[in-house]
Amino acid sequence: MSVNFRTRMFGGFDREDVVAYIEKIAKENQTQVDELTRTADDLRQQNGELSQQLAILRRQVENCEDSRRENVELTQQVQRLEEENRALQDALHQEKERGDELQVQADEYARIRDHIAEIEISAHHRTEEFRSQTIARIHGLVAQQRTWCSENSARYEELLQRFGEKLQAARNVLQETDLSGFDDMLRSLNELDEELDK
User: How many Å from the N-terminal Cα to the C-terminal Cα in the chain?
Assistant: First the structure.
């Protein structure tokens, strides 16, 4: 930049021009300094913002790393859970087959139980019917025996009375019978026996 200073006849350049130039230069320098200060402040602010953004990005990267590790762990856990689920599905299938078998057995048991219950009920009914018939027959036999006892009791009383009468008559006959002939016969037998021994 060229500067034209006025000259004086004595003493060189004009002092006012020099001072004005220096003031101008100082003002321009101050303006540049102010601009540079503002630029530096802006840069420092931008640097702070960038540092914050960098810290955020670092945290995000760390979170991403953590997320990646978590993702790997979750993937492994999902694989384990899938394997467990397959094992549980197989066990469930086996249990379902066993349950179906047990259901068939339970149905068969229920059918047999119902059949046995029907047999028991039928047998109970037949037993009750037989018991009722037997009791009725026993009542009938008891009634017949009562009738027989009543009829034969009177008959036996009559027979006993008639037998007693005949027995009394026989006693009377025996009491009236003469047994002296037997005594005579015994004496004769004794005498004959003595005669034979002589």
Answer: 221
